[in-house]
Amino acid sequence: MIFDQLSPHFGAIVHGIDLTKVSDADVADIRAALVERKVLFFREQTLDDDGQISLGRRIGELTASHPVVAGVDAEHPEVYALDSTDNGFADVWHTDVTFMRRPPLGSILRAVTLPPTGGDTNWADAQLAYDSLSPAVQELVSTLTAVHDGNREFGYYLAQRRNGQGNEWDGEVVTKLDPIEHPVIRVHPETGRRGIFVNPGFTSHIVGVSEFESRAILDLLYAHLTKPEHIVRHRWAPGDVAIWDNRSTAHYANRDYGTERRVMHRITLRGDVPVGVNG
């Protein structure tokens, strides 16, 4: 597979692959590159919702569109529509769906409607960020557990717009969003590399420390995770598709396009239970 690196360790633009016609070898290459480069961009693609779902099923097992938010339509329950005219923004740093016991392995996002300017998306490399922490801070945060709470973003939506009946996730219909604990530092199941696994979108606090200590530690990690040298930024064009490893990244969509419309369609790949340094 041919790709242009976007930084020494993180991100790549992939060339020469038509995502509507991927071979088994292409799928293997995409999976390997995904683990290595963490976020991949494919230009000038012609995917629709059916094609996006078909691609996702080649790469992994698909989840519902979201634990709480319904799919784009009845024929495509796996597709999550982020539409700026319906509050479909993602302008807080986050890792997808960390408020569930098994967050997605990865996500596949395609541009549907783009504003004339703006609407770029930024990804942060959580493993590079961990590696560049000082050893003393690495030792501290590797022992910690954090709480992730989906009610912060989706509790009202579940109660008011879905009448308390969300989608099926991990074999159960979501009727409430109980806070869930995950390790602050996650060990990648395929490489063994460590990465920061807290995010401003869904992490509420760190377990076993004071509120002041929790806020200070989280603020330190968020500031470090989103340093410019840990980030790649993508300027979307029609036909663009991004695939990223949700186990080792966080992302943020710029909300800088005023009243123009921005629509993105996302699917997610079923993941596993995050494991920390001590198992």
UniProtKB/TrEMBL annotation:
Write down the Gene3D superfamilies for this protein, in alphabetical order: Clavaminate synthase-like
Keyword presence, Metal-binding: yes
Q: Which domain of life is it from?
A: Bacteria
Task: Offer an example of a GO molecular function term for this protein.
Answer: taurine dioxygenase activity
Q: Which InterPro entries match?
A: AtsK-like, TauD-like_sf, TauD/TfdA-like
Family listed: Belongs to the TfdA dioxygenase family.
Name used for this protein in its record: Taurine dioxygenase
Give the organism the record lists: Paractinoplanes abujensis
